[in-house]
Design goal:
heterodimer; A: alpha/beta; Enzyme I, Chain A, domain 2; TIM Barrel; 3 domains; 8-stranded parallel β-sheet; globular; B: alpha+beta; Histidine-containing Protein, Chain: A; 3 helices
Chain lengths: 583, 88
Amino acid sequence: MPSLLTGIPASPGIVVGAVHLLRWEVPEVPMRVIGEDEVTREIARVHDAFTRAVERLKQVRERAARHAGPGEAAIFDVQISIIEDAELRGRVESVVHQNFSAERAFDVVMHEWREHFARSPHAMMRERVGDLLDVHIRVLSILMGLPDYDLVDVSKGANAILVTHDLTPSLTVQIDRECVGGIATDAGTRTSHVAILARSVGLPAVVGLLDVTSRLETGDQAILDGTAGTLIARPTAAELAAAATRTQRERRQGELLARVAREESVTADGVRIVLRANVDLPDEARAAATSGAEGVGLMRTEFLVVGRATMPDEEEQLEAYAGVVAAFAGHPVIIRTFDVGADKLPVGGYPHEPNPFLGWRAIRMCLDQPEIFKTQLRALLRAAVGGDVRIMLPLVVTLDEVREARFLLAEAARELAARGVPHRADVPLGVMVETPAAAMTADALAKDVAFFSIGTNDLVQYTLAVDRGHAGLASRFTPLHPAVLRLIRRTLDVGLAHGLEVSVCGEMASEPLTAFALIGLGIRNLSVAPRSVARVKQIVRGMHTSVAAAAAAEALEAGTAQAAEAALTAGLTAEGGLESLGA
Amino acid sequence: MVEDRVTVVNSHGIHARPAAEIVKAAARFASHITLARDDLEVNGKSIMGVMMLAAEKGAELTVRADGDDAAEAVRELVALVGGHFGEA
């Protein structure tokens, strides 16, 4: 069995420690029929288990209130109410009267309730399944004399690696940083609850490990690498040494980042390059702000809808946006409206699309669902009171879309004015140029927008007709293809002619060679992942725009992507290559 | 029997925490108390029942009580259900 498990990097950092395995799952309940004379005793056992479960929940609630606050601890009041529910007790007792054992009766009733809630058409009911599951597990464990896995029992200073199937909210609020050093889960994604929590408290975490709970036991030594997304079980001495080296390297990179963050972003020939950060989740804003980024070039808002049962309301969105705006006081924060397709929306039962990248998504979906869109626009206009917010529309292909969005934006402002809510009605509206259509008709769009931001990933995908997620086509996904370079150049020329800010916010800006190419094309405004800000700044500081411009001019006229790349590589090499640029 | 109608106004509706508050309040009365939405009528002292109403903002509910303290129970629950539960 390989000792290296690979999952999804959810929160950076490396931790070496002992595993604390938390099996929070419904135990198998053996079928046991009881005699009439045992009914009274079994009912007493049910009541006893309920009393003990409530006592335990009160302890857990106290602990959660200390670590996470009284608001977070309130979910345990709900669980206590469920256990004290007279209907639940009545149902369990009636099943015991049918000669089922206490644990079997409780198990049967809880399965029924969970099924009923899980199948409800109402999101509000489906969201409660987690609480029912927690109660189900807790009471059954008591009835069956199984060990209690609550974190209450992990000792201070243990630096344990918490390994569990999924971190339910009720487990999450109990986490004490003094005993837990890292988290590994079977389930989860980068935007799931556990990942967000881990990042916000700075705990290394790897999620999506699929079956990590069946591969480790409590007490096992392990190395959790939240940066790489790996977990090494029972590491060898060599692996431990490698982890120590990596920890040191991370620290050095952190120091470099901190040093470069304070330096100016100017090329060797004195040209200012504005570097902003891309922010996927609100809790990444602080890290982005300390990276030296001069604002947010792209804040994605998909985290607000993906994987949820209900759409976020205006207040929840406002809170998310306002937090990022506050972290970047005085700097622009460009927020992109929902870039999701039918498959990601929590509401409605939309059909699966055979070709989602060409389907009903992003601005198309928003314009067809004006209530969803206007809720987001109202939250954005309100967040703008706190700073320099700019709104960006994704996947625009025609001027009509901009005009419709502007109409809805004006309506949103009127609605806020009618409610007497503080907001700004003059928030700049720009478009993400990520389709050949938008780039080719940039002159038509320019009259109605405040800025262009070029999204290179999608622009490359739509221009070259290459699926960016297709592993077999990776070598054909060539961002330096002359067609792409010409579209970027065209967008820039048109934007500058109309006095618009033109930036690039795709992954392309993060790579040394492509960043060099973009600056050579004349781009002076890049937005990259927070961890790439320092690296790109080092490239900027080591290069001359004149050299890059000459290389880009050659690349624009190249016949193939390979020839364009060769021209740019030659230019970068003339600057002393990647090494001297610190890349 | 006493009954009255009430509209849910808090923005998140009767989710788990408000449901817990409602059953706690209902439990203080001796009367038999129910909450009804359209055809669904549930025990007002059961959190499972109250959660099953899935009452979002704007939902119309009927509070019914039968017993010695019915009038007081309906009055108090209507005020609670139609309140903000400490939210916006």
